[in-house]
Structure formats: structure tokens, C-alpha cells
Write a structure and sequence with these properties.
Elements lengths: L11 H11 L3 H8 L3 H13 L6 E5 L5 H8 L3 E6 L2 H10 L6 E2 L12 E7 L8 H11 E12 L5 H22 L3 H13 L3 H11 L2 E8 L4 E7 L9 E2 L10
Helix pairs in contact: 2-7, 6-9, 7-8
Family: Belongs to the class I-like SAM-binding methyltransferase superfamily. MenG/UbiE family.
Keywords: Menaquinone biosynthesis, Methyltransferase, S-adenosyl-L-methionine, Transferase
Protein name: Demethylmenaquinone methyltransferase
Length: about 250
């Protein structure tokens, strides 16, 4: 179990065990911690992925398959994949029509050029080697395909950023005490948000991994950022664009 303060040095077995322990109430905690905003954020991910009938989509860190079910409802063939077998087991109970796959984002069990789109929400910061995971995502994406990453990030307005980091994140473990039996897991999750790179640095990581035309969109003032990139889609300008030239920021 992860009992120390969060860093970017995470072992995949520790992360898997942590999510196994919170699997049954994980979706409920997401609703509580985000005050229901997670549903809106999920809709924005779907909008960015643009699923269509016949497309193949890899949904990484899929957990219980809530987001995967949304892609499947659009007619896409979705592969919900997660390192936590506990999360997958709960997902199979709730979404029996989905084909859940146990897999590590740093060593994906898929062939090269398999997917039209790859997406991961609130999971990349928990991967043992995010740089390797970004390269693996690129490997399994078809030429011309896209990646969509939704992750907690940094508010762009300094006064709110101070309040968010000093006070709001402290509320996550407090709320976990009310609705979860595993406070340590949510201590870690709160701290992992603070340890994660900001919007610009994640865009740089994506470009370094080989993704092109990288853009991001700030959601709720930057509390969450939605990054998107393309494989083999030549871009005449920089490989990194902020939301003023790429994805429009949501108020």
C-alpha cells in the first residue's frame, strides 16, 4: 500500500493494490470529491475523442468502465484497460457488455497501430513511468489517430491556485473519511495531484514522446486540463499549442 507522500516514483504493484482497495466506492468518491463535475468532464473527453461507429478506442485507467460505456454507446469498439484487477472486477459486474482487459500502461498488450484513439482520464499521474506510457500509447495508435488525456492540473489564476492547493486538496482526505474506508489511498491521490506537472510540462512530455500538434484546454480555470495530440499528423507550426490556438478554454 502507498503510505508515504506521493512522488512521481510509483511502483505499479502499489498503485494496483491501492485501487483494488477502493474499487467498490471509487465512482461514488469521484462524484463527492468533484461535486458532480466529473460527469461534465467526462462529456468533454468524449467530445475530444469524437467516437464514431466502427472506430477502435483504447480507454486506459478505465477503472469500472464508466467512460468506456459512453464510447461504446456511440458505436465504437472500446477496450477498457486497467492495471487494477479489483477495479476491472467491479466494472465487469456493472458493465457486463464491455470487454475488460488487465494491462499496464507502460507495457500495453496490444499490437502496433491498433487504435483510432487512445484516452486516459485521471490515471497518467499514477503510472510508474508516464514518459514510457506516452510512448506506448503512441505505438498502439494508428497513423493519424489521436490521444486524449484528462488530468488534474494547475489553476491559471494565482489567488485561486493558492486556495486550491492549500485548502481544497486538504478536503479530499476529509471527505474520504466520510465515504471511504481507505483514507490513506485518498491522502495519496490528493498529494499526487500536487506532484504532477502543469499543463505546459505535460504538453512537453507528449511532444517528447512523439505526439504532434499537441494542444490543451483548461477546464474549471485549470483545475483539470484536457490535452490532445496526434500521431503522424504533420503540423506546420510548433508541436505544442496552448488553448488559445488549439482547444478553447471552458469558463
Amino acid at each position: 500500500m502507498l503510505t508515504t507522500r506521493a512522488t512521481l516514483d510509483k511502483h505499479h504493484t502499489d498503485v494496483a493494490s491501492m485501487f483494488d482497495a477502493v474499487a467498490k466506492r471509487y465512482d461514488l468518491m469521484n462524484q463527492i470529491m468533484t461535486l458532480g463535475a466529473v460527469d461534465t468532464w467526462r462529456d468533454l473527453v468524449v467530445e475530444a475523442v469524437e467516437p464514431e461507429p466502427g472506430q477502435t478506442i483504447l480507454d486506459l485507467a478505465a477503472g469500472t468502465g464508466t467512460s468506456s460505456a459512453t464510447f461504446a454507446a456511440q458505436g465504437a469498439q472500446v477496450y477498457p484497460t486497467d492495471i487494477s484487477t479489483g477495479m476491472l472486477a467491479v466494472g465487469k459486474q456493472r458493465q457486463p457488455h464491455l470487454h475488460f482487459v488487465a494491462g499496464d500502461a507502460t507495457c500495453l498488450p496490444y499490437a502496433d497501430n491498433s487504435f483510432d484513439a487512445v484516452t486516459i482520464s485521471y490515471g497518467l499521474r499514477n503510472v510508474e513511468d508516464p514518459h514510457l506510457a506516452l510512448r506506448e500509447m503512441l505505438r498502439v495508435t494508428k497513423p493519424g489517430g489521436r490521444v486524449v488525456i484528462c488530468e488534474f492540473s494547475y489553476p491559471t489564476w494565482a489567488p485561486f491556485r493558492h486556495i486550491y492547493t492549500k485548502y481544497l486538496l486538504a478536503a479530499i482526505p476529509a471527505m474520504a473519511r466520510l465515504a471511504s474506508s481507505n483514507r490513506q489511498a485518498y491522502d495519496y491521490l490528493a498529494e499526487s495531484i500536487l506532484a504532477w506537472p502543469d499543463q505546459t510540462h505535460l504538453a512537453d512530455m507528449m511532444a517528447e514522446a512523439g505526439w504532434q500538434a499537441v494542444a490543451w484546454r483548461n477546464i474549471c480555470g485549470g483545475v483539470v486540463a484536457l490535452h490532445r495530440g496526434w500521431k503522424g499528423n504533420a503540423d506546420a507550426g510548433s508541436h505544442r499549442r496552448n488553448d488559445s490556438t488549439g482547444m478553447k478554454e471552458m469558463a
